[in-house]
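ENTRY TYPE: paired fold submission
RECORD: A
CONTENT: sequence, then structure tokens
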Amino acid sequence: MKRGLFLSFFIRIAIALGFVALIRVWFAPRGWVIGTVLVIAWAGINAYLLTLSVRRNIDLLQTSTAAIPDRRIGAIDHSYSDFDGLARAISEASDHVGRALNDASESRHELEAMIDSMQDAVIAVDPAGRIQWTNQRMQKLIPGTSFSSSIRIGHALVQTIRDPEILECVRTSLELRIISEGRSTSLLPGRIFEVNASPMPGGGAVAVLHDITRIEQVERTQRDFVANVSHELRTPLTSITGYVETLLDHEASLSRAAREFLTIILKNATRMNRLTEDLLVMARVESSEQELHPAPIRADVLVRDAVLAMSGLVQDAEAVLEIGDISTAEVFADTDAILQVLSNLIENGIKYGQARNATHCRVVVSSRDVSDPIEAVEFSVRDFGPGIASEHLGRIFERFYRVDKARSRESGGTGLGLAIARHMVQSHGGSIRAESELNTGSTFIFTLPKAQSIVE
């Protein structure tokens, strides 16, 4: 385009100079004056014609650009247009962008269709907490809404959803830019939802509501069944144990075979008693029926009391139970519950923490101060046994899960000790985990918040 303009300009200048030369020859005395006047007139005429040409090209470019959205660029007459190449380039770029936008629109529709087909309710909000989008499942959940009267986009979330748990999850995700989890019981009467709110990269957050009502009902039925069966088994097992112990007290009148049979009955009845007691404890903990009475207590006192309570088992097993470095900070905990947690962990260490070539099992109980993410005390129970393989570490806190099933039955384990410990620690606002290395030992670690951080 620029090359054509410059070429046209130079041709016109050359013609003007030639014309001036002829004027000078014809009108020698006054040739310069007449030539100058004619050049000025010629320049004005050419400037006017050049302006008309530029305007015409600009009008053509504007017409071509206006035709781009309707894909009519090919129908424009570009004869003698210096902007024809530019218009073509804009048209090609427009086609490329149009295809990209069409692909993005199709992907968006496909994503919306997929989210609409979900059984979970989904709602997205912008950084100011205004609703951007919801799926059909969410529309059905909100009382008073329907397809004809749906959730209004652009309105504040608090104007549509009044459930405090959902609002708190979304607020936490928006302000802290983290994944927030919660539990909603008041959005719909009789329904329980698990709420997960996640921040979006461009700002805002998306919340997903998963209906767990049926799961909760099944788990509640299961807990009630276990508790009822355990209660029913406790009485006959106690009677069996009592009668067997009475018979063994008169072992002088018993034959050797009778004593062996009675000893086996007593051993298995005792194991069944322990199992029923653990089941009852587990049912109480999971159903929140066990009332906790947390109060400030020093961490070193908890460790020493737990070690003292396990002295009988230590003597029977000929184990070595040591107290390592301990913190004197106060934690906010229910003393009986945490002593049970420590006792379960110590008992597991004594039963399963003896190295192959060692004559005695060694267990070390410690505690230390930590400050991530809150001020807390970290308790640890370490053994120096064969360790736990990595594939088992993620499941050892499940109910009835055993790493070595044969050895667990031999030692009388029920598979519920770690599950009970996990529920009790979590009910205190703490966390529990296990670390292990094969042929080196295992360490069970749990944290409890400090009493000072709870007060603050």
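RECORD: B
CONTENT: sequence, then structure tokens
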Amino acid sequence: MTFMFTYQPSNSSRWMPLGMVITVPMVMATLPVAALEVVVRPDRASLGDTLSIEVQTTETEPPQVEVAGKIVPVFPLGNNRWRSLVPTTPLQTPGRRSLIVRSGADTRNMLVWVGNRQFSVQRIWLPPGKDSSGTDFEFDRVDEFKALVTPEKLWQGPFRRPHAGPVTTPYGVRRYYNGVFAENYFHRGIDYAGGTGSPVLAAARGRVALVGRESQGFLIHGNTVGIDHGQGVITIYLHLHNIRVQEGDMVTAGQVIGTVGNTGASTGPHLHWGLYVNGESVDPRSWLGQGWE
């Protein structure tokens, strides 16, 4: 940048003509670009929320993100930006969590606060025939599905409600089953009331990665559809009456994938909808309003 000054000659400087222009080059300082920036959302998380850890780095290689001593998956957002999605659940302890982000020679050490949250208690009585302890086949298939962490992000924007009915049981409820408290259990999803045969919709774009039927041994989950949305995010739909998709199908947000039923460990027709991040059940409500990039 060049600044212009007009020199007015004094009596002792008559050798310089009036109005002569002197140019003085000025060098503008350039602020250094931060080599590693980390942003955690939401600002005030509580148990059940999904934490989004976004990293901006000058490195081309992915950063390493460690939360509470555990390395978590990192996926690209473009332009040297990366993100990790970290689940929290009602069974975890509220309070501080360590966050360490490493990129090249740079390291950021931070603390993340996750607030407490109160969850209600419910008593459920399952009639004979609905109180099965499940089958190994059922649990193996569901565990395999929950472990999926595929690299491609398939969803776009906020998730959709999978059913139009009212919520009968929210996420996180603790339960007594037939008088016995389920110590390590919490309600891993949202229950929607609905008439048998009413449509169940895919909450977001994804690939059908699980189809299980009561007749095959899904005695707790009932007729089930699981959708892989990529990058460790999956949704599951339980107790269906019938199923209208097959494993491997690509589905779009709002597509009918089945209908409400009363199969498996269910006390009446309803849809149980669960959302998992890196194998842990999180509250789906924030995903209905938050369109993670």
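NOTES ON RECORD B: Residues 1-33 have pLDDT under 50 and may be disordered. Residues 11 and 18 are 12 Å apart (CA to CA).
STATUS: closed
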